Amino acid sequence: FISFYLLEAVSFFWSENKGEASFIIQKKASLIVFPILFAFINEVNVRMILRGFVIGCLTVALFCLGHSMYLFCITGEASAFFHENLANGIHIHHVYFTLHLSIALFLLVNEFRSATDYSSAKKIILSLGVLILFLCIVLLSARTLLLTVCVILCYKIFFVFLKKKSLVFKTSVF
Questions:
Q1: Which conformational region is residue 91 in: left (phi greater than 0), alpha (psi within -120 to 50 degrees), or beta?
Q2: Rounded to two decimals, what is the model's pTM?
Q3: Which pLDDT tens digit goes with each residue over 49-69?
Q4: How far is CA 30 from CA 12, 53, 158, 171, 173, in A?
């Protein structure tokens, strides 16, 4: 990541349009900042950052659904809920938004899978989060990412089921 950013930074000097090149370098600064930050923080802080990312994605997804509901009430067009119209409220391309939501969905599914000591209320909240993120991913209709999400979720569900089934089998044998 750092070498890719350095290549971008060096290309600034070759660019004829310095303003655009400067904007691109600023936009890709996360390629150098995040690897450096994650190198110096412990696992607890990483978990807090990832939870913050999931909560942020859920908040934005709910905002987008609310914005689409508002547009639907004004215009009466159901297209307010689909494709790029869902992401218009935050001015981001729907494919990038789908990518962020997919990452948050997988983080939430992993949290749900490892939530053995959570209360039933927390499990319900996690389930609602998974449903909201999945709904938004489906509504955004980025087909390749949607297919990828479905395949990975099926994979995870299948192996969680196998793990629980083998645990039941092992306990019933002894």
A1: left
A2: 0.70
A3: 889 999 999 999 999 999 999
A4: 17, 15, 35, 48, 52
